[in-house]
Amino acid sequence: MRHPLKFKAGALLAALVCGAASGQTGGHGAAGKPSHTDDVNVFVGTGGDGHTFPGATVPFGMVQLSPDTQQRHFKQGYPWAAGYRYEDDSILGFTHTHFSGAGHSDLGDVLLMPTSGEMKLEPGYPERSFSGYRSRFSHKDEHAEPGYYAVKLLDNDVDVELTASERVGLHRYRFKAGATPKVVLDLRSSIYDWSGKNLWARMRLRGGDTITGMRETRGWAPGRQLFFAIQFSRPIKRHQLLNREEGVEYKGFAAPGKTAFDKAQVEGKMLEAGLEFDGAENAPLLVKVAISGVSEAGALANLAEMPGWDFDAARAHAHDAWDKALGAVDVEAPAPMKREVYTALYHSMISPSLFMDLDGQYRGPDHEVHQAKGFRFHSSYSLWDTYRALQPLMTILQPEQRNADIVRSLIESQKQSPWGILPVWQFAGIETWCMIGYHAVPVIADAYMKGIKGFDAEEALRAMTASAEYGPYGGLEHYMKMGYVPSDLEPEAASKTVEYAFDDWTIARMAEKMGKKDVAERYYKRALNYRNVFDTKTGFVRAKKADGQFREPFDPLAANYGSDYTEGSAWQYSWYSPQDNAGLIKLLGGDAGLISKIDQEFDAKVDPEVYAHVEDISGLIGNYAHGNEPSHHVAYLYNFAGAPYKTQGRLNQIVASQYADKPDGLAGNDDLGQMSAWLVFTSFGFYPVAPASNEYVIGRPFVERATLNLPNGRHFTVRAKNFSPDNGFVASVTLNGKPLHRSFIRHGEIMAGGELVFTMQAAPNTDWGKAAADRPYTQTAY
Q1: Contact (Cβ atoms closer than 8 angstroms) between residue 240 and residue 273
Q2: Percent helix, strand and coil across the chain, each rounded to 5?
Q3: How far is CA 643 from CA 284, 540, 635, 727, in A?
């Protein structure tokens, strides 16, 4: 691993980390060849507000096996949304489901914690060593790379290694010589909140080495059911299955069948197990955990995905899966930037995650079990975030392999939805109703516009219009009648109006390509509704009341949850008409008006306390908030006013200040990969301002060379001449050897393969991309 975390462990753990038994060294392959995983720092985002986790998973895998360090026994807050924080010094245990970078959380299922001392069945407190099964650890005794995690538990005196396949997490525990191996299984544990979250749970013994069970929770996704099967590499010597609810009698540790208390099964809301094993001449204890959203039988069957007990082989398989996925891009850049780009690419390939058993069964938004036919069901959709860059990135790197499955999953979810609409923010197949918009629509439209196959376009369009015309959702009934969402009838009305308008435009694009002119005309008209909430007197998007008047008083800095804007202020939302930037320019009085307004946003002197009460407004440069998604396209808007050099200058600011190769190296929540996908695109020198336009707006590259190894067998290379920290501006651009004067590149040009060459220089070129004919797509003519 070439990242700044220096791993210094004892001889035993050092041997584990280096994979001595398998001949592996760090993240290198079996033959010792350099791997793309060498340039991934999985700890990026585990500090600050990145909300990522460092544990083991495979690309888009169903299992995310990672340590949890949450600080308080019963309830954690916003900082522990992924369960782990780099600042902590104790580990609660290892759980099998996590979000990567979410601003809210849930999950943290099936906690296992090995120990060799006294069996403690309460977690204890981080400030009090040995107060429970929680254990201190040190970063010098911790190592992680894609698909693998290792740590020494100091209090419990156990060396832990973790790896995973798609549906199975694999643990390897090494205990000190002569110790009696013990493991705590705690089904009470959840990320965010333990108190009252469990609706019901079950554990049962199946033979001498297997435990199955389930739990149903009422967290972020109401009524979520998770089933599991745990298999140990040797028989359980003694056990206790406990219901820890108040009023339930607590019994001590006993061997199977020796007391009336011991049962093959226990049910309740607060379940826990204590397990003891023979030392087996100091051999490691291995544990396989398979999960399912369908049934215990499904979890048991999923164990077949990882046959045998060869941990090193499983680790190598996870490594190879990541090396192949990351190998979609070959990057040449200075070491820090190369690590930032590959780490961002890694974080872009964790979600949406598989949520389907080996036999194709999955649980849908109606809580019923369904059978996938001809596709693999995925869930975990932070769509308000990921439609902007993450899903467009997959249309390039994994169009048929992953993107088509995702589109099919969205369409099937709409069919199974009790409301008949596409997912808004779904995980484990269940709708959470988090955030706004119907942003599954642009994901589908973008895939269709780019010619991705594997789904029925007619079926998809019906699902899209059903979502766009479902009146009870988010003020849509008012939006369809009035052309905007009225603020006195619906919260976050200004944001909803402009986001609905963009989604409508993507429907129009797809309908037009399908030859459905009536549908296209209706939605192109709706796409202009953003104008109904734009106040030309102030130059801001503002909330309008049902009587047609703007809400007064107006403060463009005002931001709060449930206000007129979603996780932002008028400064962050007044740029949101990516489908019609020429129209926005006209509303602002012309090119100079747009340029001046964006300059004001970036250059403003803003007291940080202005936004301190809104957790998600972070990564501030003036009023620009890179830590939250509504700002992500803003720097690229200068291109639409004929000033690409201004885009290049702002990108220099953003990349230098918002990303770093360290735990707090993300300015805000990674939001299931969107923050990372922004950096991946930007490092290549272009960005999808308007998904479904089939165009990418050109910025400037932040790597010397990037070769996209496309699934169709072709290669598209971006190269930067005169690449250096001093040369932050584009002098000229060529595409396949010919001068490129326009400030955008088409999707088809990338997929055809070829070479995009930037010549860099220290001073801005104010003429390149200036002409109206050289500007990117917009609905309204310049």
Answers
A1: yes
A2: 30, 25, 50
A3: 62, 21, 11, 18
- 145, 27 Cβ separation under 8 angstroms: yes
What is the enclosing helix (H) or strand (E) of 233? Answer: none
For 183, list phi and psi in degrees, rounded to 5: -140, 135
Under a CB-based contact definition with an 8 Å cutoff, are residues 717 and 755 in contact?
yes
Task: Note whether 491 and 475 are within 8 A (CB).
Answer: no
Q: What is the DSSP string of 270-314?
A: SEEEEEE---TTTPPEEEEEEEESS-HHHHHHHGGGS-S--HHHH
Predicted confidence (pLDDT) per residue in 715-750, tens digit: 999 999 999 999 999 999 999 999 999 999 999 999
Helix (H) / strand (E) element for 319: namely helix 311-326
Q: What DSSP designation does 590 have?
A: S
- Could you give the CA distance from residue 645 to residue 19 in angstroms, rounded to a whole number? 49
Residues 38, 172 contacting (CB under 8 angstroms): no
Joined tokens for residue 94: 């290892």
Per the listing, tokens 């600050």 go with 48
> Contact, 428 vs 362, CB < 8 A?
no
* Residue that the structure tokens 């990418």 belong to: 696
Buried b (16+ CB within 10 A) or exposed e, 74-98: eebeebbbbbbbbebebbbbbbbbb
Q: Helix 493-513 and helix 517-526: axis angle, to 10°?
A: 160
Residue count of the chain, please give it.
782
Q: What angle do CA 327, 333, 339 make, to 5 degrees?
A: 65
The b/e string for 677-712 (b: 16+ C-beta within 10 A; e otherwise) is bbbbbbbbbbbbbbbbbbbbbbbbbbbbbbbbebee
Q: How confident is residue 615, by pLDDT bands cut at 50, 70 and 90? A: confident
Find out whether 446 and 692 touch, Cβ atoms under 8 Å: yes
Render pLDDT for 333-343 as a digit per residue (tens, 0 to 9): 999 999 999 99
